């Protein structure tokens, strides 16, 4: 009986994972060593020769947007672009920056996977990678 309950529980967890939002972002300030809250972020999809706006959000106190992909929309294969509005962020905190925006273009091949885009940020440099 315990095995049956465990199997049902794992199935429910698997279904919850599949229903989770497929895209999240995280911004960390390398100069201060703390998360960057209040960074505006947009999500666009490459459609033909153009970029189509899908969603936008603002990083929370932990520097995160946990659910950037719009609810109710199908997550499709293709190219996407996340644009971090770093100029606005640095202006608000009273600091100069060389990069007013940081676009990160990435390709989605497996729509059943989660995509996490961290941005490690400083006024004159940045780094990003595919996180988990």
From TrEMBL:
Record keywords: Hydrolase, Purine metabolism, Signal
Chain positions recorded as substrate binding sites: 26, 64, 129
Protein EC: 3.5.2.17
Gene (name only): uraH
Protein purpose: Catalyzes the hydrolysis of 5-hydroxyisourate (HIU) to 2-oxo-4-hydroxy-4-carboxy-5-ureidoimidazoline (OHCU).
Transthyretin/hydroxyisourate hydrolase domain segment(s): 18-131
Swiss-Prot/TrEMBL catalytic activity: 5-hydroxyisourate + H2O = 5-hydroxy-2-oxo-4-ureido-2,5-dihydro-1H-imidazole-5-carboxylate + H(+)
Signal peptide extent: 1-19
Entry-linked SUPFAM superfamilies: Transthyretin (synonym: prealbumin)
Name of the protein described by the UniProt record: 5-hydroxyisourate hydrolase
GO biological process: purine nucleobase metabolic process
Quaternary structure (record): Homotetramer.
Family of the protein in this entry: Belongs to the transthyretin family. 5-hydroxyisourate hydrolase subfamily.
GO molecular function, one term: hydroxyisourate hydrolase activity
